[in-house]
DNA sequence: TATGAATGAGGTTTCATTCAT
DNA sequence: CATGAATGAAACCTCATTCAT
């Protein structure tokens, strides 16, 4: 069967995600990947120069998808807390809806060049938010990266660690977390 | 030369840490490890059943070292905030003093069975602290794990991300972070 | 664009020659060849059954070109020595004028079935010359192949080795070689 | 079974020679080689960094063996012609006694870096001979390399081509060749 | 206890060839 | 005729592990 160029690359990306969730990054072999993606081993090399480049592009795609999810339904006319809350829930729901991504989160951090990729991509969403909220005097004057660690990052770490938790995470608890992390970064 | 059992195992652990910092976990081969540790390839198998078990024990050791560092100079007669502050700085300084550990932080999360190891080890220090602080009505009633994510975990994530930051992290900024994360978890 | 059958085959042959000179026979892949010849990979298989056959026909073409060059301006009315001298210079100049062929000389000998090809092609030129010269009592009675090795072959080996020589090869030296190899095969 | 270091390297060299004779250089795979040498694939890489280096060392070894054979029983007190004759026969007999080498001769010329290897090795034997014979006024004043092409090289080319010859090469014919090539290079 | 040569399964990548368009 | 995406066998090479010493 013939595929459009994006079709097959996407097919390979999705297979990568599934395999990473199933067996982990360091058990990801090109042969297994080919099998999972229902293509021949050589075919992958028509779309990616080598394994390293495949993983790098995979990371870029992830990051883009993630950033898009964060911005979803964001309304700048709402209060800054509401906007923060929206982003926090966006991340949370996105990770709940994409369990493979959730279980891959640790692995993603190991992808080659992830740091460079993150920097090269536009952080516009969060940076934008921080700039506006600081200008309005609602956010403390700390570097944006740190504000991210204290704020939205908790949505990731808690989602990531939740499968090991004994207690169930109720909406009440999460709303409490949102409110308290907001307290940590507000002026 | 003769070695006591612990000697050689420790030698191998240290070599593991150096190699992970230098080339990353997924380039860590038993041969390179043997060379770095100045032992023969076969010798490693006298101390560890296989690579997986070596890495698991390596993770256990890491965790123990880390937990010991967190507890250092902890004085229960101080105020809860002071105790929290002490632990936060303990983590921060420990990571500054152990740059290989810092640059390995991401890698550690990929070690096989890390999650199980963490759970199996006694979290006594933090759990203890939480229990006492909650009893004293100073800490909000949330699961201890979540409190950890909102609190001390920030010392790790910020230290880990600091090499990518443009701004320099002054003591003032860090004290601000401590104070604000405390605000997030206090009653 | 449309091509006559010979056009495209010749285009492929020329691309083969260029690539062999540039990267060597054992780095010659059908894809690179297609690219160099500005045709699609599959197109080559319309003209040649497979790689082996392409190389074999390539060798035949080479041999034919070479033989034609040897015979050039050959005048049977001249003395046998003059005819020999003419052929020797023909070979020499041909190799100087076709540097890719010169740098491919070693490679050619590796082409599949070269030996069979050489035998199957008509040696008429040299055999002819030998026969006539022997009849005239000017050439020693040795097998023609051996006479070739002692005589004209030196034009090839010296041209081939000349790039490694420290000394420059003057016309004087070459004339001396011609005269002396003639001495080796004359009666 | 255990081997001394040279044992196994030599075993691999000999297997290389056999396989080259049987299937040609460009069909020589490391797996087939391992099988032919009765070792595991990985074992070869304990002795040679990679295929290229294996072939280069193989070429060096060949060249050394060949040079040693040429010098055999060479007696400087004999006449120059006798010495020349001795070397010619040395080459001839050596190639008859080592049929794989003979059938590999073409292949050898394709070995990577052969040119560099030849230059880096001492040509002392032939250069020596030429120098002495020129000083004695017995050899024509031409570059030594050219004298080699006109002289001893014929032993190689004729041996190499002899399997394609229809006529049998008698001692008489070969002696004639020796005498005539000597004629070509003598003063 | 310690060694390190040897193994061979499995890794990534290349490439001659096919076939639907 | 001509294309070039797709194939998958086979290439080179690595590496966790064993075992005779």
UniProtKB/TrEMBL annotation, chains A, B, C, D:
Origin superkingdom: Bacteria
GO-annotated molecular function: DNA-binding transcription factor activity; transcription cis-regulatory region binding
HTH tetR-type domain: residues covered: 6-66
Transferase among keywords: no
Record feature DNA-binding region, as residue ranges: 29-48
Keyword terms: DNA-binding
PROSITE patterns per record: HTH_TETR_1, HTH_TETR_2
PANTHER family given in the database record: HTH-TYPE TRANSCRIPTIONAL REGULATOR RUTR, HTH-TYPE TRANSCRIPTIONAL REPRESSOR FATR
Protein's name in the database: TetR family transcriptional regulator
Species: Rodentibacter myodis
